[in-house]
Amino acid sequence: MAFLPLSACAGLPAREAAGTPIAPLVGTGFATLHADAGGAPGFLLGSAVAVAPGWVACASHALPRGAAAVWLRRGDGAPARRAAVLARSRRMDLSILSDEGGLLSPASLAEEAVEVGDPVWVAGMLGIGAGMASGVVEIPDAILPRFGHGFTTRMAALMGYSGGPVVGRDGRLHGLVSALPDGGSADALAWLSGMDLGGLAGGRGRWIFILSIQQVAEEAKRISA
């Protein structure tokens, strides 16, 4: 997770995603995640996506420890809104935020599992580097301890993509970006510099673990009941 100041954000995710399968979701159901800085949006933390009416999913590791609320800024540039942290899973890298005001429209969830070679697109927070990436599924059925059950892909995703939506060619949500298992020392450098230098240099070769939307939907119901 890399903390970036608001001034580092240039452009809008919806604009960058134009013409791709993820574009409709980025404009209505995707948000960048910001720390709560005394009742106003603060540092960029990661990304989030609406998975049900009033529920927004994000990666737990992107949230500050003990945070009761964060801010959501929609991909089309609509004014940011404060969102309470409803629940954090102890089983996987997932937290659910409240969206009582209806800032985000829920994504259409994929019903079929991914297969090897399926193309996927992901959106993440705009900071240093691209706000969107694409790749293909490598391992369609994978379990990463402490993170959950999902699949893997290789793409030019950055650390700020944590919690970002991953869609197939039909635009339906297949999962959330959860981990960069091969980050190594580059992750530590990102913490110190505020820039994901490893991701910027790695191009399309970075291995990404995606938490499956089936896992997200089931766990969201369990922990938010």
Give the gist of this structure:
With 225 residues, this protein is an alpha+beta fold. It has five helices and twelve strands.
General description of the model:
The chain has 225 residues and is α+β, with helices and mostly antiparallel strands. The chain has 2 domains: 18-98, Trypsin-like serine proteases (Thrombin, subunit H, Beta Barrel); 119-219, Thrombin, subunit H (Beta Barrel). It is built from 5 helices and 12 strands. It has helices at 13-17, 23-28, 185-193, 197-202, 213-224, and strands at 30-36, 41-52, 55-58, 69-74, 81-88, 95-98, 119-123, 132-144, 148-155, 165-167, 173-179, 206-212. A hairpin with a 6-residue loop joins strand 5 (81-88) and strand 6. It is globular and about 45 Å long. It starts with 12 loop residues before the first helix and ends with a helix.
